[in-house]
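Many groups now describe folds with learned vocabularies. In that spirit, our science desk offers one protein's residues alongside their backbone shape tokens.
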Amino acid sequence: MRSNSSPYAWWKLLAIVLLIYAGTMGFIGDVPRLAILNETIRNLYFHVPMWFSMTTFLLIAIIYSIKFLRSGNLLHDRIAVEFTRTGMFFGILGLLTGMMWAKFTWGTFWTKDPKLNAAAIAMLIYTAYMILRDAIADEDKRARITAVYNIFAFPAFMALIYIMPRLTDSLHPGNGGNPGFNGYDRDHQMNMIFYSSIIGFILLGTWITTLRIRLRMWADKKDGLIIDTKKHDS
């Protein structure tokens, strides 16, 4: 991932355009009239992209954790932790939007649904990752231990979010034998908005992360920690 110094890089402008389009059409565009869901199906444009974004950022984080263990370059550690933070942020947004959706469709903010509980456990796993980082004082030791933790955390996250709910009864579409939205109610217009939202939020999260990495590098420099950025390849 190569940093772009221009504040008006094309992908940043694309993120703004896609999110404006998805946000506008998400609220005023036509949606199918389905029993129980009604207008709440609009949350599909916001809730689901949060989880896609979280998964993307946590995947990038594990890649850079592996790269750190191979190279020893602390810049890779910084990138890994900041993508993890961004992933957790989108995960929290995913939980909040999901709770709102559950309230209007299931009558409560939280149920014993396997996917909801698995999502909460997944967030706790990554919360422990952050706590572990703060608990270790030695810079190199902290980076190595948490990199290994990150490598094991991601498969656990994937199993909790995408595998286990499909093996048991679940209220979520696409899980527990329930049909997914794309199976019966998403048309071309909805797909345009849906995928624009996913791409837009992923680009926005990447933008946020690059800014946080720059701030982290500035803080490291201020603290006298020298990080070799020349080893950082694209």
The CA atoms of residues 220 and 226 lie 7 Å apart. The chain has a mean pLDDT of 83.
